[in-house]
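User: two proteins, same treatment. go.

Assistant:
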Amino acid sequence: MAVEEEQVQAPVESAEPVVEDVPVLAVRDTVIFPGALLPITVGRPSSVALVQSLGENRTLAVVSQLDPRVESPGPEDLYRVGTICVMHKAIRVPKDNLLLFCEGIARARVVEFTATEPFLRARMERIPEVEPEVTSEVEALRQNVVSLFQQIVTASPNLSDDLASTATHITEPGKLADFIAGNLPALEHAERQRLLELIDPGARLVEIHRHLTRELELVELRGRIQSQVQG
């Protein structure tokens, strides 16, 4: 079923933004979406100091670097939109690194940095997630997205079938877009960051639909080439 992109209605802004002062974990080539649980390996002295400072309040902001090659990123080296997370566990791993298990809670925008030593801190404004009204167009787009994702999972041996099952039961457009964005290996870091910065859930679902369409074409092309080679 064809879906007109302009028919996806934008959400109505309502809730007051929540601003909080939190430690900022700068990461390379990593984007955490709200609702996702992601392992992150850290080893920089500033990152280790940040983790050790958390205590019982394990809230932090995970913000991606503009250039992953920068060894000691400052405020000017980071994107302005990241994710408020809760760190559930930190495990020491070889080479004096820590493996953090962080759960994304909410999108957040940097208001201002409040400290750079011994680690970055910033006032972060949580961005409310206001799902669009579920019209027939939005529902048709959601079903298309789920169908495309299921086909990609089926054709990709490295993706678990559970992912397709989980996607089927996510009814909110924004949450569905975030879930797929966090589990689609083909997405580049810049593409994930763009999806994180897309505040409108309807627009995010349209964007994910584009990525899935492109990825399915590539998967089918690879399959045809494989069959020809084997033939």
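Protein 2:
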Amino acid sequence: MIEVRNLTKVYGNFVAIRDVSFTADRGSILGFLGPNGAGKTTTMRIITGFMPATAGTVVIDGLDIFEDSLEARRKIGYLPENPPLYSDMRVDAYLRFVARLRGVSRSNIENALEHALDVCGLEDMAHRICGQLSKGYRQRVGLAQALIHDPPVLVLDEPTIGLDPRQIHEIRGLIKTLASGERTVVLSTHILPEVAQICDKVVIINEGRVALQEKLSALPAGTSLEDVFLGAISKEHHELEGSREETLEEVGAGRTE
């Protein structure tokens, strides 16, 4: 369903991500895990077509996100770290507006709205002003706008950040419901329990590079995700340091010749 191949993003002299590659199967939840600043959000923005890559490709259900951008993006629902809400609009009016932007036919908008409100538990909030909602309900509206056009792929960037424990539990349960059937979910987070509880596969990124890609069911019995995470980023860090030292030695040797 999702193939990410050798993504690289460079800003001037800064390499945000380098050769990032992973896959997500249809109907699965992939946890994209890494420390703050590891390159998770940059990768999510490239996958969803919000940002071009310096190099590499992303294929969504057979469509290249760069060559077939419009068609590929129609297959994606995206919840960025900060939900893109209009604070002065009512929830139902906002979701109708998003539905029109996403190409939902006029005859199907009300059905799409009813479905999104139902799935995200927003029936009682439909006539509330977005800016007056709690953080938890704003996240639910963010999920509803990502779902309104019934996409086969959902990309969620830190969907539980800033929520209280009850809200976190509710949103995690909602995400598991959304991934049932044919829908694929990519969940970007730095929260280990989030991945352990709801994901089928984990991709660990550190300092802009993939340190590990593995199905959770394939991890050795008795091994905690915390141990796997710390081991992966520690190994990646040492490899990067070794590579940098070799580069410095080569530069130094060149200057003495």
